[in-house]
Structure formats: C-alpha cells, structure tokens
Amino acid sequence: MKRINLLSLITLLFFACSKDNDLASPDFKGGTEYMVTFNIDWNSIDFPTDYPSNAHFSKLIGWSHDSTQTFFKIGTSASAGIKNMAETGATSPLDTEFVALIEEEKGFNYFIGSNLGTGNGDIVLNVEVTNEYPSITLATMIAPSPDWYIAVVNINLLENNSFVNQKTVEAHVYDAGTDDGATYTSPDEITSPQQPISLFVDSPLGNGVELNATIATVTFTKL
C-alpha cells in the first residue's frame, strides 16, 4: 500500500513539473522563433557597372531588440563593429557590441548566419523575438566594396499584439559613412570626419535616386 502511494506521489510530481516546464516555454512568455530567408540577387545584368568577378557577401549578423532602438539607424554614426562589418565583413567586434546592448536590456539575442560565396542566392537562419523585443535587424557586407552593406533594420514582427505568420520586406543598401571609395574595388580611403549611416543609391548600384533593381528581399516565416 505504501508503495502504491509513493508511486502515485511520484507520478503527480512528474506531471506537475512537466506542467511548470510547459508554462516556462518561449510561447508562454510571448516569444517565438522565425526562419529568415535572405534572398539576394546582385547580378551583372541589373547592376552592370563595374560588377566584380568575385561578388560575394559576408556572414549575416544581427539581433532582436525593442522597436525603439537606433543602432544601425540612418543618420547615426556607425559603431566600430558596424564599420568593421561594412568594410571587411567581420562579425567582430559587432558581436560584442550586441552582447553589451543585450546586457543593458536593449535586446534579446544576437544571431550570426552563413555567408554567400556569390552575388545570388539565399542565406537562411533562425531568429528569436519576444513581446518586449519584437524587432529584427540583420546585415551583410557587399563584397568587395568600400563600406556598403545590405540590411533590414528594425523590422517589427509584432502587429496588433500578435506575431505575424509571415512577412516579406525589401532589403536596402547602406553606406556606413567610413570609407570614401567610389566603386567596389577602390583602395581604402578613410572618410574624415566620419559621416552618418545613409541609404546608398549611387553608381555603381543606382542612379543617384534609387537602385537599378531590388537587390534583396527578406522573408520572415513563423515556426
């Protein structure tokens, strides 16, 4: 009889613990996971001017954050990490800058995806967001280039108090404002003083008003 009671007690404790674990899941806390497909189409037909023979993209890097963040925002100064990513494709020290921002409770997590060895193709990675940190920023260097990168900045996946099932946005080209080079293989020429981050629509990618074509689209699919 004692054995039966003990077994019953263990069973009850097991289900109670399982219930507690379920309550602690990300969905219960208001967060969720997305698969991000970064579809890039940098080609020599739409972008023929000086198109490099070794066109490629650096590792995709970004973070989930609150919707008021100005990091990466147009008109702000590129951090050392953004500068290094835009000029060399490196993920450091941008990764440590994300860690510092997250420790200051300005973000939830940061992510590093794969690179792309050509000008065309997909970079796919999973990201996590929460109710408090519903926005995503992701960037990859256009390589070679002076300080240009493709990015989606502050994409809020929370709409009408619910996370969207799917969202597709156009990525833009940005100039980090740190190198004066005029084309892909220009020699390093430090911009002094450093200029604010801006949209890049000039030659060789655009006509000064807009890009020659959409260079990338990014799809967020809820998992």
Description:
It contains three helices and 13 strands, in the order H-E-E-E-H-H-E-E-E-E-E-E-E-E-E-E. With 223 residues, it is of the alpha+beta class. The strands form three sheets. Strands 2, 3, 4, 6, 7, 11 and 12 form a seven-stranded antiparallel beta sheet that branches. A hairpin with a 2-residue loop joins strand 8 and strand 9. The radius of gyration is 22 Å and the shape is globular.
Name of the top-level CATH class of the largest domain: Mainly Beta
- Give the helix level as a range of percent: 10-25%
Write down the CATH topology of the largest domain. Immunoglobulin-like
Rg over alpha carbons:
22 Å
Structural class: alpha+beta
Helix count, per DSSP? Answer: 3
Strand content: 25-35%
Measure the end-to-end span: 47 Å
Return the domain count.
2
CATH superfamily of the largest domain: F-spondin domain
Q: Quick summary of this structure?
A:
By secondary structure, the chain is an alpha+beta fold. It has 2 domains: 1-30; 33-222, Immunoglobulin-like, CATH 2.60.40.2130.
Secondary structure layout:
Elements: H1 2-23, E1 32-41, E2 56-57, E3 61-65, H2 80-88, H3 94-103, E4 107-112, E5 120-129, E6 135-143, E7 148-156, E8 158-159, E9 162-163, E10 166-170, E11 172-175, E12 198-199, E13 216-222
Antiparallel strand pairs: 1-5, 1-13, 2-6, 3-4, 3-6, 6-7, 7-11, 8-9, 10-13, 11-12
Helix pairs in contact: 2-3
